[in-house]
Amino acid sequence: MKIEHVAMYVHNLEKARDFFGTYFGGVSNEGYFNPKTGLRSFFLSFEDGARLELMNIPGLEEKSGCPVYAGYAHLAFQVGTKEKVDALTARLKSDGYRVLSGPRTTGDGYYESCVADSENNRIEIVAG
User: Fold this and answer.
1) Residue 79's closest CA among 22, 21, 46, 125?
2) What was the pLDDT predicted at 58?
3) DSSP 22-56
């Protein structure tokens, strides 16, 4: 059994699609629109077969910062090496994204950094 995809609601669908495409190589489909509900979505496919669905629907509630709460915690992308973690973290910071932690080696041995995406969701970048 495998997880088919992960989905998340976002406020700015195109900006979120561009974030995951630009920094993590996600390739987007043409998108979907349901005129009855107003739901719009994109599926992004990644090199290893993982898929991420980005969705927007009228009436989404706002959240602030990068809260810690029960439920979705973060998405983690494995980029291969410590050097690639460092380089992508530096690129995201240079492009104006907030680095929340790292790059560092965690207590359980992961080399990672954590950044806030265009919607303030936590995105971990980990070495292989």
Assistant:
1) 125
2) 86
3) HHH--EE-S-EE-TTT--EEEEEE-TTS-EEEEEE
